[in-house]
Amino acid sequence: MNSRRDFLQKAGISTLAISLPFSEALSAIHLEREDKVLRVAIMGLGSYGTRVAEAMKDCKRAKLVGVISGTPSKIEAWQQKYGIPAKNCYNYENYHLIKDNPDIDAVYVITPNSLHKPHSIGVAKAGKHVICEKPMALNAEEGREMIAACKAAGVHLLVGYRMHFEAKTLEVVKMQRAGEFGKTLFFQGLSGFMIGDPTQWRLNRDLAGGGSMMDIGVYSINGARYMLGEEPIWVTAQEVKTDPVKFKQGVDETITFQMGFPSGAVASCLSTYSMNNLDKFFLNGTKGFAEMQPSTGYGPIQAKTNKGPIEADHVTHQTTQMDEMAAIILDGKKPIIPVDGEEGLKDLVIVDAIYEAVRTGARISLI
Ligand code: NDP
């Protein structure tokens, strides 16, 4: 058999593709190859890890193939549920061995906040791409270390900003960038939920790195930046604590914060662990507004503008996120709103400034 046809058939290409010009046939081969699916191991099989695993069942470009966990019973249950082979199962002591596993491309770190840095750096050193949950780290200094480690290892560092791929969010962002609201001058971000079990890691400063701000408040910080399309130049913040027993020293219950932007726009935000159903973004400009409520929950997201409601089908956020992240890592696709380590770092710089503003009462400059 002639060598081109032989090559195409060995590569598993369809008869249809054989009739294509050679360059197009090659890209068709690419689409059929197993390595065009991002093979992911999840580290930390908790509540959000489980949500991601379920959502990945519907992914086209990403596949759950491995786990890293400190709980043997969970590993066993996940192996059965998701058909994960024993050779792709690790714990926190031996996951460096993942470097010798050619069947895993990336690790999604979904452990408590203070473990994001050591776990992400461990994954990078094992030569695998890192997807890390928000907040990327406890502070900007840690974030910079993670970026440096991933750069040194030549791997991607992506942050689990699922809203950056959500259809209604992207439509509002598109309208804002097109000037449809005029000059945008005000953003309001309200992010909160009532936290339960007082013994959970989210209320432990060593594991959480703070309180509501580290967990839910980062949505308002991040949202202000992508809704306004600019970076803040100053921050002020105030803390309110109604339950000092539940919310110990260093664990914030409620913080209100304000950010100023180079254009003159201001953001006014609230982060809390003491109010349920608080999930709202509001943007106003010289010509009109956008309102999203819920704005960052698991959806469906609701959005309207002065021109009327925004319609888009609801797709499970984590399904879209993982498919899009696969395209970023495998194809070099550029997302509309970045999800890389530098994006995570921008939020952490603001988190640091908010905590400093709470401590000092001062207006903190970011320039
Ligand atoms: P969970 O407590 O439900 O799960 C965390 C898992 O991490 C545990 O089940 C455990 O898994 C592992 N782990 C390793 N070390 C520890 C430790 N010392 N203490 C507790 N758990 C440990 O938390 P979530 O899944 O809710 O949150 C995990 C991360 O995901 C957080 O950073 C959070 O901010 C983020 N998140 C993001 C969301 C989003 O929408 N993007 C939503 C919810 C959370 P194992 O037993 O397998 O080792």
Which kinds of small molecule does this entry bind, naming each only once? NADPH dihydro-nicotinamide-adenine-dinucleotide phosphate
Largest sheet, if any? 9 strands, mixed
Order of helices and strands: HHHEHEHEEHEHEHEHHEEEEEEEHHE
Number of helices: 12
How many domain regions?
3
Kindly provide the name of the CATH class of the largest domain. Alpha Beta
Radius of gyration: 22 Å
Descriptive account of the structure:
- The chain is an alpha/beta fold.
- It has three domains: 2-35, no CATH class; 38-160, NAD(P)-binding Rossmann-like Domain (Rossmann fold, 3-Layer(aba) Sandwich), CATH 3.40.50.720; 163-314 and 341-365, Dihydrodipicolinate Reductase, domain 2.
- It is 37% helix and 20% strand.
- It is built from twelve helices and 15 strands.
- The protein has helices at 3-10, 15-18, 22-32, 47-56, 72-82, 116-125, 140-153, 167-177, 205-208, 212-228, 317-331, 341-360, and strands spanning 38-43, 62-68, 89-90, 106-109, 129-132, 157-159, 184-192, 234-240, 254-260, 266-272, 278-285, 289-292, 303-305, 308-309, 364-365.
- The chain has a nine-stranded mixed β-sheet. The chain has a six-stranded parallel β-sheet with strand order 3-2-1-4-5-6, with helices on both faces.
- The chain is globular and about 55 Å long.
- Bound molecules: NADPH dihydro-nicotinamide-adenine-dinucleotide phosphate (NDP).
